[in-house]
Write a structure and sequence with these properties.
By secondary structure, the chain is α+β, with helices and mostly antiparallel strands. It has nine helices and 14 strands. It has three domains: about 60 residues, Winged helix-like DNA-binding domain superfamily/Winged helix DNA-binding domain (Arc Repressor Mutant, subunit A, Orthogonal Bundle), CATH 1.10.10; about 210 residues, BirA Bifunctional Protein, domain 2 (2-Layer Sandwich), CATH 3.30.930.10; about 45 residues, SH3 type barrels. The chain binds biotin.
Length: about 325
């Protein structure tokens, strides 16, 4: 835990009572001047920190920026795997690229990479992902699960359920999932998940879960062609959302579901997923390369694949492609 994380945590815990420079210096094993220098740095980042002889330091407001030490302070080591290491970039090509580099450098699983903006954000099926500066949560999680490659869809399904729960707990809005990776609010896409993996025949080497959440975009932020199908939390709730709080909620939910998948409790995750699913029981049109399948989405199998009953009564197992709800 860095000095900034410790300072932010101590101020959060002290609340209105405040914490003195002397207390902080003693706790952290540094001088009061060093504490003062860190406070000044935090202020320069936009943290409103009140200093008074009576109360010491009090945290009054936090800026709308993603700051790794702040996110770590908010999580305060409460997650098992995901979010014990957090890295924030102002701009990158794609956070999945950064996470992949970390994977190849043998960085421990659970590291989360955020970027305030992506210049080459990507979605499924080769699509681009709009990643405007400071408007959303664009992040990737590196995982090294002991799963067969065929079971990787379990992670996408688990992540989708986790994203729905986090959005719901932070905003009160009801999000739903369109299999496998689209998170919808009011029928429009608010978030997406891009799962990329490196695997041998029988085991996964690593998985990168790339998650994009449109948090504070307005209608005009979207290109015209996306306005009909895309939305943001701000557009749905009529006011902006706190990105840092949502980021922490997402990390907690992802960590909880990752534990369930790793413990072989995917059925519990799938049951929850089904409750927020906008696909099951519906007529769907599936496009896989040039092949199309029309039918009714019946259920998920034990690997997270979608089982679709065709008009001819055959059960098709869908592991990829584009699923749209038939009108
Ligand atoms: C989709 O819906 O097609 C998936 C979108 C995934 C977007 C996220 S943003 C963070 C991470 N980095 C990327 O380049 N893509 C994912």
């Amino acid at each position: 835990m860095s000095i900034d994380s410790e300072i932010l945590t101590a101020m959060r815990r002290a609340g209105d009572a405040g914490t003195s420079g002397a207390e902080l210096a003693q706790k952290l094993g540094v001088t009061r001047a060093a504490v003062w220098a860190r406070i000044e740095e935090l202020r320069a980042l936009g943290y409103e920190i009140e200093a008074s002889p009576l109360h010491g330091y009090r945290l009054r407001n936090t800026p709308d920026v993603l700051h790794a030490d702040d996110l770590l302070s908010r999580l305060w080591r409460t997650t098992k795997v995901i979010g014990r290491d957090i890295r924030v970039f102002q701009e990158t090509t794609s956070t999945n690229d950064v996470a992949e580099k970390l994977a190849r450098d043998d960085v421990k699983e659970g590291v989360v990479v955020f970027a305030e903006a992506q210049t080459k954000g990507r979605g499924r099926l080769g699509r681009a992902w709009l990643s405007l500066q400071g408007k959303g949560l664009w992040f990737s999680v590196l995982l090294r699960p002991a799963l067969r490659p065929q079971a990787a869809t379990q992670l996408t399904v688990a992540a989708a359920a986790a994203v729905c729960r986090a959005i719901c707990s932070q905003t009160g809005l009801t999000a739903s999932v369109k299999w496998p990776n689209d998170i919808l609010l009011g029928g429009k896409k608010v978030a997406g998940i891009l799962t990329e993996l490196s695997a041998e025949l029988d085991h996964i080497k690593y998985v990168i879960l790339g998650i994009g959440v449109n948090v504070n975009l307005t209608l005009t932020d979207f290109p015209v062609e996306l306005r009909r199908i895309g939305t943001s939390i701000q557009m749905e709730q009529g006011r902006s959302a706190n990105r840092a709080e949502l980021a922490v909620a997402l990390i907690r939910e992802l960590d909880a579901d990752y534990a369930r998948v790793c413990d072989g409790r995917f059925t519990a995750v799938a049951d929850e997923w089904e409750q927020c699913c906008a696909t099951l029981g519906k007529s769907v049109h599936v496009l896989i390369g040039r092949r199309t399948i029309d039918g009714r989405a019946e259920s998920l199998d034990e690997d997270g694949a979608l089982l679709v009953r065709t008009q001819h009564g055959r059960l098709e197992r869908i592991t990829g492609g584009d699923v749209t709800l038939a009108k």
